[in-house]
Every structure is written in structure tokens, then in C-alpha cells.
Amino acid sequence: MGGSNAVHFVLVGLHMHRFYVESQCLKKGSCFEMSGKEARHAFFTLRLKINDPVVLFDGNGNEYKGIVASVSRKAGVIEVREALVVPADTTKIVLAAAIPKNSKFDDIVDKATQLGVHAVIPMQTQRMIVSIEPQRAMLKQKRWQRIAVEACKQSGCSYIPRIEPVTYFERVLKNSNSFDLRLIASLRNDARQLKDVIRKSSPQNVIVFIGPEGDFSEEEYRMAQEQGLMGVSLGKNILKCETAVIMTLSVMHYEWKL
């Protein structure tokens, strides 16, 4: 690498554009041909040129810093200058959230990804305003997975959360026994303060249930209690579900230093 290129690479290292690539075994000095949607974004929308620095990431913790080596009509070649593995968080958080009306779950996926969740489970609950047919649910799952990828590109996250299929509350509850800590956001008077629970625990994996606009039903609360979930309060105000997600994950992120 020549002197001028080296300086350019270092100076803009903190502002390099990020591009998602499926799992690759790349190493320093190797080249990767970027094509398709990511190439169109890089070379036609952003108009990246030869020697511009970029970061490739596979969503599984592998990142590759490099420069644009060449650009053709439909693709570009990235020369890898540094390959690194980003350690995963010591606590894996799974978000099980009811699906709100309109496109608000898009925002939930986006914000949850930025805050480093391991997986997102879109839930159907008894008091949901919307009802999603199976075929439409599959299309939404694919859309939400794409949103998670874009959120990782924007935020610098190295791990793309897995977006699970739309699942009924009862099934998610039955499958939650393997988690070290299981929480459900609650408006009940006997719920413990979220921050107090977080400060007294250091789980390796945790699942948190966030309800719909109409809250969980009495039957759902009863089932959660029977399964051993801990009800946690998010404060005196009644929050929208997307706000509750942001608050809950932010507290976890701060207290566990993720």
C-alpha cells in the first residue's frame, strides 16, 4: 500500500461505509467481488471510487476492512487489508414482542437491532389489533430480516439478529424454559422494577416479553406466572409497545454494559 493510500485509509477509518456479505472466508490480501444490490448501492448510489475504504461484514462477527480495488459496470472488487472477529456480547437477549398495528414492528426490529438483540420473535397475542395470515406473515418475516441487516449496516453492529417466524404467545412461552432469565413487561402493581431486576442478575441468555397496545390479557399473565416468568414494571407511565421495547433494551444495554 502506497503512502498516500495508507493515510487516506486511516483518516477515514471511523467513517467507512459498511456492506453486508454472506459468510466468506476472507483474509488480509484477498479480494472479494461485490455484486448485486450491495454493489449498486456502493458504486452507483454512494459513487465509491478506487481506493475508497469500506467494511464488509457477514453478520456473524466477521469484519473485513479494505479498499475498492476496481469498479466495473455491475460489480466492484474489494481488496481486504484487515480481517477481524468481533467478540459477541456476554449476554444474549431475545425480544418477544407483540405485533402492533401499521408498520410499527419495522421500527421495533430496527431499534432492537441497534441495541444488540440476539433474536426477535414477532408474537401474536390475544389483544392484538391486527391479525396476520400465514402467507403474509412469511413475507413480513423476510422484510423484517432485511430491516435488521440495514440496521446493522447503519449502527455498526457485527451480529445480525435472527428474526423468527410469527408465533403465538403460548408457543413462545412454552419454548422459553431454557433461558436463564425470563421477564414479562407488566402493568400490575406487584411487578418489580426492571432496573432492580437487571442489576441483581447476570444471565448468559434472557428473553423479555413485550405486550400489545391493549396489554397482555389476564389469561396470558396467568400462564406467564405459572411458567415462572417475572413481571417487571417499566415505570408509572403507560408506554406504546415500540417505546417499551426501546426502554427495556436500553436499560439492559446500560446495566449489563453490552
Question: Would you kindly provide a written description of the structure presented here, covering whatever features stand out?
Answer:
The chain has helices at 3-11, 36-45, 104-114, 134-155, 169-174, 194-199, 218-226, 241-255; strands at residues 17-20, 31-35, 53-57, 62-71, 75-85, 92-98, 119-124, 162-163, 167-168, 181-185, 192-193, 205-210, 230-233. The chain has 258 residues and is α/β, with parallel strands linked by helices. The chain folds into 2 domains: 3-85, Hypothetical PUA domain-like, domain 1 (Ribosomal Protein L25, Chain P, Beta Barrel), CATH 2.40.240; 92-255, SPOUT methyltransferase, trefoil knot domain (Alpha/beta knot, 3-Layer(aba) Sandwich). Strands 6, 7, 8, 9, 10, 11, 12 and 13 form an 8-stranded parallel sheet that branches. A 5-stranded mixed sheet has the order 1-3-4-5-2. α3 (104-114) packs parallel to α4 (134-155) and α3 (104-114) packs parallel to α8. The longest helix is centred in the middle third of the chain and has 22 residues, at 134-155. Mean pLDDT is 90; it is low at 1-14.
Annotation keywords:
258 residues, alpha/beta, Ribosomal Protein L25, Chain P, Alpha/beta knot, 2 domains, eight-stranded parallel β-sheet, five-stranded mixed β-sheet, 8 helices, disordered N terminus
Write the layout of secondary structure elements.
Elements: H1 3-11, E1 17-20, E2 31-35, H2 36-45, E3 53-57, E4 62-71, E5 75-85, E6 92-98, H3 104-114, E7 119-124, H4 134-155, E8 162-163, E9 167-168, H5 169-174, E10 181-185, E11 192-193, H6 194-199, E12 205-210, H7 218-226, E13 230-233, H8 241-255
Parallel strand pairs: 1-3, 6-7, 6-12, 7-8, 7-9, 10-12, 10-13, 11-13
Antiparallel strand pairs: 2-5, 3-4, 4-5
Helix pairs in contact: 3-4, 3-8
